[in-house]
């Protein structure tokens, strides 16, 4: 009986301690990364949203198609950008309507269509990406060159621990994300 009471008291004390403790979101890395990603994405969105009427999902489609050498599927874009497939599908519909992307037949499987930039889409991508690189540089201006390298290396380590593809070449070689 005494042993049961001691165990119950220890369990209750542990529960009380846990109840008093709280997760400090501002020290919780997933929260910080999510918040940072949202802010950086919003800061970059000004470049393509206000000037060109593109929303974030549409830019993700353009950016993914812009860095690739070959056409790819909407599923690839969804996986690559970690954006829900229905969101990518809506963006694809809009971009097709605006003639910024086009469907091309997959030579390996004629039932499947892939996506690629049109000349108009390529021109927009070529106009936007230097602006986005400048904006990225502004955002990271608070870091020294060495700190930028360290940040990149640390992000790479986290990505690797999550088994994420880290290079365009690797993504192209696997044809999937």
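-> sequence recovered:
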């Amino acid at each position: 009986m005494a042993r049961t009471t001691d165990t119950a008291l220890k369990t209750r004390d542990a529960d009380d301690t846990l109840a008093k403790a709280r997760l400090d979101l501002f020290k919780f890395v997933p929260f910080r990364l999510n918040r940072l990603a949202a802010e950086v994405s919003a800061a970059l969105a000004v470049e393509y949203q206000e000037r060109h009427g593109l929303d974030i999902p549409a830019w993700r489609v353009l950016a993914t198609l812009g860095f690739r050498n070959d056409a790819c599927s909407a599923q690839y874009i969804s996986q690559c950008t970690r954006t829900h497939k229905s969101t990518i599908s809506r963006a694809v519909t809009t971009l097709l309507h605006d003639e910024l992307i086009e469907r091309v037949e997959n030579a390996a499987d004629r039932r499947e269509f892939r996506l690629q930039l049109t000349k108009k889409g390529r021109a927009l991508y070529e106009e936007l990406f230097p602006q986005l690189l400048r904006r990225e540089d502004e955002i990271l201006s608070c870091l020294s060159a060495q700190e930028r390298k360290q940040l990149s290396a640390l992000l790479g380590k986290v990505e690797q621990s999550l088994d994420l593809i880290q290079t365009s070449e690797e993504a192209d070689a696997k044809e999937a994300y």
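The mean pLDDT is 87.
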